[in-house]
């Protein structure tokens, strides 16, 4: 509804500018403390017109024409600023649209196919806390882009033939896997042991190199060993991802691009650019004109490809599958991702949009899978859910254990996802699980509790026979400040969805969810619902509770969080 309001404002102002005799300019109204929208267009026109901005603003407003029942109540000036106030029609139509569209409210204004790659952690152990920001950003962006109308294919690119996998394959030949452990955790144990052995006996590194060469040359026996190792790790990783409510549509193995010949083809295309050179036997690409002093190695001296080479082939394939490509990468990939984009540009291929995120850590410090110094995502989730269960048990001791487990899972996973996503990707963050689970702070549990509160109000009203979900309350009686503020906050859902999708900034939705929950709680505090003065007002306020519940649920779904009906 908000976007429709903005479009009407732009159209009205453009017509007024033309009638006032000024040259057409771009009009981009913005939110304001003094009005629902404000425009600085008078500043743009003043210099060309040879008039003061105040004079220009007044001339534009004098030529405003509003049609009946539009979303604009009035347009006036405060000095050079043109201020726009939303009409009652805007309020009532927002209310009615939410109740009619329900789960479909918000978004659906874009089209096209997007291929979004995220997580893609090496299958040499379980996901650790350092990985989950990638997963949560990627999954949340997938949800946002789908909500806005895009057809999104979320992919996990499986490194199934690199050095780490060669070490895992070798480790499985020399060390026993613990059958009691989850498969990815068991893989990590033998991987750690293998690295320790290789450090003690560097000569064995030659055997690892030999395994990598045999895989690339098509040795079926070694390929199967690699595949078996990868399958074990990926099985455990997928289980953890699903536990976090993170979903991939497909898992794409990098080895497929070697076996299909696509890696050789991309290397040939790079050679034809005239940018390649041989450095100590390795094939390198000169990207100095793109601003990179360091060359990019695309083929080792032994003729084998690198992860980057296979990634280039993968991106060429992705370019043929979608209208747009998006990669979610950690800050340690800044250089290589820039070189990848430059190389793709040099050979005339579509470049991806890259979302670079800084790392998330725990107060315990940094993590390394190779050295065994990490806290797994599974450990973190177990810890958070146990703490969430304690909180639910304290608040609802009368409820059965099944209820407590279900709510604790929703709240625990939601707290992790929200605390990770609420920070803009380019900013580093430390995950504090105690703060994330604090029901008194405006975090994930606060938004979920607001949804549960709205659901409980409607349930109680239904049990008392005073609420019918199919009813059509009269929204025009909602005139209190807190009621209007809540409806206007609900109407903003389209705006924040569009902004988050356009800028690839999922934290915008997290902030909006908190602000919407706050607006709902302010409304509930100041506007009695079940104890309203008249039946008509009570029905209207129940309708508004229903609107808030629906949009809170939509926000929680977009954030990948559960929407409990009771907490």
Write a brief caption for the model.
α1 (2-19) packs across α3, α11 (262-271) packs across α12 (307-319) and α18 (481-491) runs parallel beside α21 (535-558). The protein contains 21 helices and 13 strands.
Describe the protein's architecture and organization:
Among the domains are: 1-86, Arginyl tRNA synthetase N-terminal domain (Gyrase A, domain 2, 2-Layer Sandwich), CATH 3.30.1360.70; 377-559, Orthogonal Bundle (Isoleucyl-tRNA Synthetase, Domain 1), CATH 1.10.730.10. It is built from 21 helices and 13 strands. It has helices at 2-19, 41-49, 53-62, 88-101, 129-147, 163-174, 183-200, 205-216, 220-243, 255-259, 262-271, 307-319, 334-346, 377-395, 401-421, 433-436, 444-463, 481-491, 493-503, 507-526, 535-558; strands at residues 37-39, 72-78, 81-86, 113-117, 151-158, 250-253, 276-279, 282-285, 296-299, 324-330, 353-357, 360-361, 429-430. Strand 10, helix 13 and strand 11 (353-357) form a beta-alpha-beta unit. Helix 6 (163-174) crosses helix 7 and helix 14 packs across helix 15 (401-421). Residues 447-567 form the DALR anticodon binding domain.
């Amino acid at each position: 509804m908000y976007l429709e309001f903005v479009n009407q404002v732009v159209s009205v102002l453009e017509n007024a500018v033309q009638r006032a005799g000024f040259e057409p300019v771009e009009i981009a109204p913005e939110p304001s403390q003094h009005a629902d929208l404000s425009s600085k267009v008078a500043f743009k026109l003043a210099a060309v017109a040879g008039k003061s901005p105040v004079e220009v603003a007044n001339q534009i407003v004098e030529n405003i024409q509003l049609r009946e029942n539009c979303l604009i109540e009035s347009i006036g000036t405060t000095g050079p600023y043109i201020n726009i106030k939303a009409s009652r029609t805007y309020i009532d139509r927002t209310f009615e649209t939410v109740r009619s569209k329900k789960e479909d409210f918000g978004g659906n204004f874009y089209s096209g196919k997007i291929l979004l790659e995220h997580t893609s952690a090496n299958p040499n152990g379980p996901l650790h806390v350092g990985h989950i920001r990638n997963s949560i950003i990627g999954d949340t962006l997938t949800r946002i882009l789908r909500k806005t109308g895009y057809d999104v294919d979320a992919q996990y690119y499986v490194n199934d033939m690199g050095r780490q996998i060669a070490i895992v394959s070798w480790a499985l030949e020399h060390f026993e896997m613990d059958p009691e452990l989850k498969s990815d955790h068991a893989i990590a144990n033998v991987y750690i042991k293998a690295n320790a052995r290789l450090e003690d006996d560097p000569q064995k590194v030659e055997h690892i190199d030999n395994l990598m060469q045999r895989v690339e040359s098509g040795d079926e026996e070694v390929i199967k060993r690699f595949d078996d190792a990868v399958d074990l790790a990926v099985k455990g990783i997928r289980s953890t991802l699903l536990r976090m409510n993170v979903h991939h549509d497909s898992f794409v193995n990098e080895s497929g691009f070697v076996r299909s010949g696509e890696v050789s083809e991309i290397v040939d295309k790079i050679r034809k650019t005239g940018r390649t050179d041989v450095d100590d036997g390795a094939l390198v690409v000169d990207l100095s004109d793109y601003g990179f002093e360091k060359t990019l190695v695309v083929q080792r001296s032994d003729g084998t490809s690198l992860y980057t080479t296979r990634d280039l082939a993968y991106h060429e394939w992705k370019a043929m599958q979608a209208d747009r490509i998006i990669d979610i990468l950690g800050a340690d990939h800044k250089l290589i991702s820039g070189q990848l984009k430059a190389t793709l540009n040099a050979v005339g291929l579509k470049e991806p949009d890259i979302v670079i995120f800084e790392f998330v850590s725990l107060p315990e410090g940094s993590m390394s899978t190779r050295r065994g110094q990490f806290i797994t995502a599974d450990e973190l989730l177990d810890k958070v859910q146990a703490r969430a269960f304690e909180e639910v048990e304290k608040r609802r001791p009368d409820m059965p254990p099944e209820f407590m487990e279900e709510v604790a899972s929703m709240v625990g996973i939601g707290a992790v996802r929200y605390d990770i996503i609420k920070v803009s990707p380019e900013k580093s963050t430390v995950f504090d699980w105690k703060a994330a689970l604090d029901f008194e702070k405006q975090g994930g549990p606060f938004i979920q509790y607001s949804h549960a509160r709205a659901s409980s109000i409607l349930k109680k009203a239904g049990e008392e026979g005073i609420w019918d979900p199919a009813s059509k309350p009269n929204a025009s009686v909602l005139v209190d400040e807190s009621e209007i503020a809540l409806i206007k906050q609900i109407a903003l859902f389209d705006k924040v969805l569009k902004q988050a999708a356009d800028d690839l900034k999922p934290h915008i939705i997290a902030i909006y969810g908190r602000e919407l929950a706050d607006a709902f709680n302010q409304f509930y505090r100041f506007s009695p619902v079940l104890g309203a003065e008249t039946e008509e007002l009570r029905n209207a306020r129940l309708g508004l509770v229903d609107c808030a519940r629906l949009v809170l649920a939509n926000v929680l779904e977009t954030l990948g969080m559960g929407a409990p009906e009771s907490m």
